Protein backbone atom coordinates (compact mmCIF):
# COMPACT_ATOMS: atom_id res chain seq x y z
CA UNK A 1 0.00 0.00 0.00
CA UNK A 2 1.27 3.48 -0.85
CA UNK A 3 -0.14 4.97 2.38
CA UNK A 4 1.66 4.68 5.70
CA UNK A 5 0.22 5.50 9.09
CA UNK A 6 1.70 8.54 10.79
CA UNK A 7 2.09 7.99 14.52
CA UNK A 8 3.24 10.47 17.17
CA UNK A 9 5.97 8.11 18.34
CA UNK A 10 7.56 7.40 14.96
CA UNK A 11 7.28 10.92 13.52
CA UNK A 12 7.62 13.00 16.71
CA UNK A 13 4.45 14.95 15.95
CA UNK A 14 1.19 15.67 17.70
CA UNK A 15 -1.93 14.51 15.89
CA UNK A 16 -5.31 16.23 16.16
CA UNK A 17 -7.43 15.14 13.19
CA UNK A 18 -9.99 17.93 13.19
CA UNK A 19 -12.32 16.31 10.63
CA UNK A 20 -12.96 13.47 13.08
CA UNK A 21 -14.50 16.07 15.42
CA UNK A 22 -17.13 18.79 15.19
CA UNK A 23 -14.34 21.44 15.37
CA UNK A 24 -14.26 21.85 11.60
CA UNK A 25 -16.06 24.23 9.26
CA UNK A 26 -18.96 21.80 8.70
CA UNK A 27 -19.70 21.58 12.44
CA UNK A 28 -19.98 17.76 12.28
CA UNK A 29 -17.43 14.93 12.19
CA UNK A 30 -16.51 13.88 8.65
CA UNK A 31 -14.36 10.90 9.69
CA UNK A 32 -15.56 8.26 12.13
CA UNK A 33 -11.95 7.37 12.99
CA UNK A 34 -9.22 9.98 13.66
CA UNK A 35 -6.45 8.39 11.60
CA UNK A 36 -3.43 10.00 10.00
CA UNK A 37 -1.94 8.58 6.80
CA UNK A 38 0.38 9.89 4.11
CA UNK A 39 1.92 8.47 0.97
CA UNK A 40 5.38 7.09 1.76
CA UNK A 41 7.00 9.94 -0.22
CA UNK A 42 5.21 12.58 1.87
CA UNK A 43 5.90 10.66 5.09
CA UNK A 44 9.64 10.84 4.36
CA UNK A 45 9.39 14.63 3.96
CA UNK A 46 7.35 14.85 7.16
CA UNK A 47 10.17 13.17 9.12
CA UNK A 48 12.57 15.83 7.84
CA UNK A 49 10.12 18.61 8.74
CA UNK A 50 9.62 17.20 12.23
CA UNK A 51 13.37 17.12 12.85
CA UNK A 52 13.73 20.73 11.69
CA UNK A 53 10.89 21.87 13.96
CA UNK A 54 12.47 20.04 16.89
CA UNK A 55 15.77 21.90 16.29
CA UNK A 56 13.79 25.14 16.69
CA UNK A 57 12.27 23.97 19.98
CA UNK A 58 8.92 23.40 18.26
CA UNK A 59 6.70 20.52 17.21
CA UNK A 60 4.29 19.92 14.35
CA UNK A 61 0.62 19.40 15.11
CA UNK A 62 -1.11 17.59 12.25
CA UNK A 63 -4.72 18.61 11.66
CA UNK A 64 -5.39 16.52 8.53
CA UNK A 65 -3.43 14.40 6.08
CA UNK A 66 -4.82 11.74 3.71
CA UNK A 67 -8.44 12.60 3.06
CA UNK A 68 -10.53 9.93 1.34
CA UNK A 69 -12.34 11.01 -1.80
CA UNK A 70 -15.66 10.49 0.01
CA UNK A 71 -14.62 13.04 2.65
CA UNK A 72 -13.53 15.52 -0.02
CA UNK A 73 -16.99 15.21 -1.60
CA UNK A 74 -18.66 15.88 1.79
CA UNK A 75 -16.55 19.01 2.35
CA UNK A 76 -17.24 20.27 -1.18
CA UNK A 77 -20.97 19.62 -0.83
CA UNK A 78 -20.98 21.69 2.36
CA UNK A 79 -18.82 24.58 1.07
CA UNK A 80 -18.06 24.55 -2.66
CA UNK A 81 -15.46 27.32 -2.41
CA UNK A 82 -12.58 26.45 -4.78
CA UNK A 83 -10.22 28.86 -3.00
CA UNK A 84 -10.36 26.66 0.10
CA UNK A 85 -11.91 23.30 -0.85
CA UNK A 86 -10.71 21.29 -3.85
CA UNK A 87 -13.41 20.17 -6.23
CA UNK A 88 -13.56 16.37 -5.82
CA UNK A 89 -14.25 15.97 -9.54
CA UNK A 90 -10.62 16.95 -10.15
CA UNK A 91 -9.11 15.30 -7.09
CA UNK A 92 -7.31 16.81 -4.15
CA UNK A 93 -3.69 16.43 -3.04
CA UNK A 94 -5.18 15.22 0.26
CA UNK A 95 -6.99 12.44 -1.62
CA UNK A 96 -3.65 11.42 -3.12
CA UNK A 97 -2.06 11.15 0.33
CA UNK A 98 0.52 13.84 -0.40
CA UNK A 99 -0.97 16.86 1.41
CA UNK A 100 -0.91 17.73 5.06
CA UNK A 101 -2.59 20.44 7.12
CA UNK A 102 -0.63 21.41 10.20
CA UNK A 103 0.54 24.08 12.58
CA UNK A 104 3.35 24.59 15.06
CA UNK A 105 3.20 24.15 18.83
CA UNK A 106 5.66 25.19 21.51
CA UNK A 107 7.22 22.95 24.15
CA UNK A 108 4.12 23.35 26.33
CA UNK A 109 1.79 22.17 23.55
CA UNK A 110 0.42 25.67 22.85
CA UNK A 111 -0.27 26.50 19.22
CA UNK A 112 1.73 29.39 17.84
CA UNK A 113 -0.30 32.39 16.68
CA UNK A 114 -0.83 32.08 12.93
CA UNK A 115 -3.20 35.03 12.60
CA UNK A 116 -6.15 32.94 11.40
CA UNK A 117 -7.64 29.66 12.47
CA UNK A 118 -7.30 26.37 10.64
CA UNK A 119 -9.76 26.23 7.74
CA UNK A 120 -10.71 29.88 8.21
CA UNK A 121 -11.99 30.85 4.77
CA UNK A 122 -10.79 34.44 4.78
CA UNK A 123 -8.06 36.61 3.23
CA UNK A 124 -6.27 36.43 6.62
CA UNK A 125 -5.48 32.80 5.81
CA UNK A 126 -3.45 33.67 2.70
CA UNK A 127 0.33 33.49 2.79
CA UNK A 128 1.58 37.07 2.67
CA UNK A 129 -1.62 38.50 4.16
CA UNK A 130 -1.16 41.96 5.62
CA UNK A 131 -4.20 41.43 7.86
CA UNK A 132 -2.24 39.59 10.57
CA UNK A 133 0.22 40.60 13.28
CA UNK A 134 4.00 40.60 12.82
CA UNK A 135 4.19 37.72 15.31
CA UNK A 136 1.73 35.63 13.32
CA UNK A 137 3.58 36.45 10.10
CA UNK A 138 6.90 35.40 11.65
CA UNK A 139 5.35 32.13 12.88
CA UNK A 140 4.00 31.42 9.40
CA UNK A 141 7.48 32.06 7.97
CA UNK A 142 8.95 29.49 10.36
CA UNK A 143 6.38 26.88 9.31
CA UNK A 144 6.85 27.77 5.64
CA UNK A 145 10.64 27.49 5.90
CA UNK A 146 10.45 24.13 7.63
CA UNK A 147 7.95 22.61 5.22
CA UNK A 148 9.52 23.89 1.99
CA UNK A 149 13.00 22.87 3.17
CA UNK A 150 11.62 19.38 3.86
CA UNK A 151 10.35 19.02 0.28
CA UNK A 152 6.77 20.29 0.40
CA UNK A 153 5.27 23.20 -1.50
CA UNK A 154 2.71 25.62 -0.08
CA UNK A 155 -0.77 26.59 -1.21
CA UNK A 156 -1.00 30.37 -1.20
CA UNK A 157 -4.58 30.58 0.17
CA UNK A 158 -4.00 28.41 3.27
CA UNK A 159 -1.14 28.96 5.71
CA UNK A 160 -1.71 25.43 7.11
CA UNK A 161 -1.65 23.42 3.82
CA UNK A 162 1.47 21.82 2.33
CA UNK A 163 1.76 19.21 -0.40
CA UNK A 164 4.29 17.43 -2.55
CA UNK A 165 4.96 19.09 -5.91
CA UNK A 166 3.23 17.82 -9.08
CA UNK A 167 0.78 15.74 -7.06
CA UNK A 168 -1.86 15.39 -9.78
CA UNK A 169 0.60 13.94 -12.29
CA UNK A 170 2.36 11.56 -9.91
CA UNK A 171 -0.18 10.18 -7.44
CA UNK A 172 -3.67 8.67 -7.90
CA UNK A 173 -6.73 9.77 -5.96
CA UNK A 174 -7.75 7.17 -3.37
CA UNK A 175 -10.99 6.38 -1.62
CA UNK A 176 -11.58 5.17 1.91
CA UNK A 177 -11.35 1.60 0.63
CA UNK A 178 -7.58 2.12 0.18
CA UNK A 179 -7.31 1.71 3.96
CA UNK A 180 -7.60 -1.64 5.68
CA UNK A 181 -9.40 0.07 8.55
CA UNK A 182 -11.71 2.76 7.09
CA UNK A 183 -11.89 6.34 8.33
CA UNK A 184 -15.42 6.91 7.05
CA UNK A 185 -18.74 5.35 8.06
CA UNK A 186 -19.85 2.69 5.61
Automatic annotation (TrEMBL):
It is an enzyme of class 3 (hydrolase). Its cofactor is Zn(2+). Its EC number is 3.4.13.22. The active site is at 158 (proton donor/acceptor). GO terms for biological process: cell wall organization; proteolysis. Keywords: Cell wall biogenesis/degradation, Dipeptidase, Hydrolase, Metal-binding, Metalloprotease, Protease, Zinc. Pfam families: Peptidase_M15. It catalyses: D-alanyl-D-alanine + H2O = 2 D-alanine. Zn(2+) binds at residues 94, 101, 161. The record marks 67 as: Transition state stabilizer. GO terms for molecular function: D-Ala-D-Ala dipeptidase activity; metallopeptidase activity; zinc ion binding. SUPFAM superfamilies: Hedgehog/DD-peptidase. The keyword Hydrolase applies. Binds 1 zinc ion per subunit. InterPro entries: A_A_dipeptidase, Zn_M74/Hedgehog-like. Catalyzes hydrolysis of the D-alanyl-D-alanine dipeptide. Belongs to the peptidase M15D family. PANTHER family: D-ALANYL-D-ALANINE DIPEPTIDASE. This is D-alanyl-D-alanine dipeptidase. It comes from Thalassospira lohafexi.
